[in-house]
Design brief:
Elements lengths: L32 H25 L3 E8 L5 H9 L7 E5 L5 H4 L5 H4 L8 E5 L8 H4 L16 H20 L2 E9 L2 H13 L9 H7 L2 H15 L6 E5 L3 H19 L8 H13 L3
Parallel strand pairs: 1-3, 1-4, 2-3, 4-5
Helix pairs in contact: 1-10, 2-10
């Protein structure tokens, strides 16, 4: 199957001067669910091969960051895109409310500790960006943090953006490719997904009334997301804004972008040196090969 135009990664890249309004929450195409699932399966097969090479080479790593409003599809996208990949080769970290131990350290500490080792894919379901998203919408939460000389003004957030960029720059220089996804769901689609959780008994476990409270701050969160994307988009740590109103379309797009990024990394199995080749020949002979 030829790759349809809507899978072009550059279509979703957030660029200087962009706003979230420039990126739609849905995209039109002619593929049905079964065709999208087939596309996703093909992308996964390539991802499995690329990840095996990256793991064997043990030189570089990949950090995938997923952000979005509640019910945007972060969990399911991670599940479907990474299905079939060797569990030893990737790690998923979900970041909720910081613990007392985490709050006793600097605000990036718990995120540094979760960075992927060489050869692995690290997936952050929510991330260090929560510190410039939920806290920007609810600055009153900062009152419980032991931050010296706390003054929550424009400069406060600009310094946090600078800290984020510095961290991501360091990761890139150290051999970790950083790729960030904002799953862009519409307010109406979120409402429908909330209703689904409330109307289907098998989804009751997903429901949290706090999500409904946070929905009241929809516009504030959109502004916070846009500010964060504008301040932290970088060539070497790009943001991709993914239309999230149709889940299978979203998953196919994300898988295609991840595959594209890993292909650019060009992972390869390590080449044995002369001594290793001698050992291989010796052991092959011992086994009668």
């Amino acid at each position: 199957m030829a790759k349809p135009n809507f899978l072009d990664p550059d279509r979703y890249r957030f660029r200087k001067g962009d706003s979230l309004k420039d990126h739609s929450t849905h995209i039109d195409h002619d593929l049905d669910k079964s065709e999208l699932k087939s596309l996703l399966a093909v992308e996964r097969e390539t991802l499995i091969e690329l990840q095996e090479k990256m793991y064997a080479n043990d030189a570089h790593s990949l950090l995938l960051i997923f952000q979005g409003m509640d019910s945007a599809g972060k969990d399911s996208t991670i599940k479907h895109v990474m299905s079939g990949i060797n569990p030893a080769g990737f790690q998923v970290h979900s970041f909720g409310k910081p613990t007392s131990n985490e709050l006793a350290h600097n605000w990036l500490w718990r995120h540094w500790r979760a960075m992927p080792e060489r050869g692995r894919i690290g997936i952050h379901n929510r991330s260090h960006y929560e510190e410039v998203l939920i806290l920007k919408v609810h600055p009153e939460f900062l009152d419980s943090r032991s931050i010296p000389n706390l003054d929550v003004d424009k400069s406060f957030w600009e310094k946090r953006y600078d800290d984020i960029k510095a961290m991501e720059d360091h990761l890139v220089r150290s051999g970790t490719r950083v790729v960030k996804f904002f799953l862009n769901v519409s307010k109406e689609e979120q409402r429908q997904r909330f209703l689904s959780r409330l109307n289907e008994p098998e989804k009751f476990w997903k429901w949290n009334s706090a999500d409904l409270e946070e929905r009241k701050f929809w516009d504030d969160y959109q502004d916070a997301f846009e500010d964060a994307l504008k301040a932290t988009h970088q060539t070497d740590a790009p943001w991709f804004v993914i239309p999230a109103d149709h889940k299978w379309t979203m998953r196919a797009i994300v898988a295609n972008i991840v595959r594209h990024q890993m292909t650019e990394m060009d992972p390869a199995f390590p080449v044995p040196n002369e001594q290793q080749l001698e050992y291989i020949a010796r052991d092959r002979a011992l086994l009668g090969g």
